Amino acid sequence: MNLADTNYIVVGNSSDDPFAIDVAFAMGQLEDVADMISMKKFANSEFCPRFISDEQDFYEIGNKLAGKSIIIVSTSNLVISRQSLAMRSMMIARAAKENGAKEVILVEPDLYYSAQDRGPRSGLGDTLFERSAKDLKKFDGQPFTAKLYAQMLKLAGVDRVLTVHNHSHSVQTTFNEVFEGKFHNLIPYDIYVDYLLHSNIVNCGSQGEGLALCAPDKGARAFVKEMFRLLDLPKAKFVLLDKERTGERKVEIKLHEESETTFEDIEGHDVVLFDDMVRTGSTVVKSCQFLKQINPGRTVFAVTHFYASDEGRSKMAHVAIDEILTLNTIPTVLNRDVQGRLRKKLVVLKIEKWLANNLSDILGIDRPEHDDSLYQIDMSSKNQRWTKKIYLSEQLRTLHAK
């Protein structure tokens, strides 16, 4: 399918963004992103995007995009700040609308400003808990930036927003209100299920014998329970931890009183701990250290948004974590220098195909014709399972040859 036939155009907020290019290709767009939009910069450093038009056409000025829908794919990188990228997306959206576009869709896998998801008063942010004075004080003096961002995107011309595994109820509620239901929080259950069932990252029986899924806190319980259901491994276990933050980087871990499984039940099991994001790594390392008390087979940390900070890399190199499974919602994680020592135990699932499929379904257009894979696997040769993978593939080739 040629995406141009459907009147959808995919662009990035930088013309050489590999993630945006891969999403465009996965959706069937034959034209290069750089041939669709020019990212101009004036001498005074101001950004000025321009959708490329026929220089000889003086009849359809400002109307080149009439009837078309523009999909802006926005991911963070090492060169441009998130603040600049946010502004660039808004300017691209405004350029699209002022040149006749009927709809602008923003695809931002890691939705910006989601950590600034409430303000210093009870009416600023819709939470699932009653906010204490301590919680209000955390936001004292700062803005409810997530709401401001949603409103600015809407004002700029964005009509619909797609993101991946957003953790904040307040952000989800706010974006749903601002975009009148045209906000889509895609949860990558099928990606994790597929990889856990069809890779050797964990070892378990055909019904889940020897496997335990772990939620690090009550906030992750719903996600991990759904993962448990979708895996459909009746003999797998589920354990719920509890954490108490005693400081900015100090966390105490214990077994949650509502956990369905005790430590005795999961001794010797491979344990997969799930979370939506990691920044400093304090919580996950503490959790895995805590789990090591039960002498597990392996401890695997599965996380959707991986912020590869210096502090996070240093902490997660701890031997308590055997392997890290993540997505490329923040594409810098694919850089081996960014991975640092973690490349020895890191596997990244590239989600551009999966995202293109979901986007096509939401927009009501035919899915692109490509293979059935949901993702591509990126793994350093330093990862011990990489050598096993090569060995297994060689064995399979030998069997087929016979």
Gyration radius, rounded: 23 Å
The appropriate CATH architecture of the largest domain is 3-Layer(aba) Sandwich
| First-last Cα distance | 38 Å
SSE order: EHEEEHEHHEHEHEHEEEHEHEHEHEH
Helix/strand/pairing category: alpha/beta
Count, helices: 12
**Largest beta sheet: strand ordering:** 10-9-8-11-12-13-14-15
What is the beta-strand fraction?
Answer: 15-25%
Shape: globular
The share of residues in helices is 25-40%
Q: Which stretches are poorly predicted, pLDDT < 50 over at least 5 residues?
A: none
CATH class of the largest domain: Alpha Beta
Count the strands?
15
CATH fold title of the largest domain? Rossmann fold
- Give the domain tally: 2
Main beta sheet, described?
8 strands, mixed
Kindly describe this structure:
By secondary structure, this protein is α/β, with parallel strands linked by helices. It has two domains: 184 residues, Rossmann fold (3-Layer(aba) Sandwich); 193 residues, Rossmann fold (3-Layer(aba) Sandwich), CATH 3.40.50.2020. Helix content is 31%, strand content 22%. The chain contains twelve helices and 15 strands. The strands form three sheets. An eight-stranded mixed beta sheet has the order 10-9-8-11-12-13-14-15, sandwiched between helices. A five-stranded parallel beta sheet has the order 1-4-5-6-7. A two-stranded antiparallel sheet has the order 2-3. α1 crosses α11 and α6 packs across α7. The radius of gyration is 23 Å and the shape is globular. The relative contact order is 0.10.
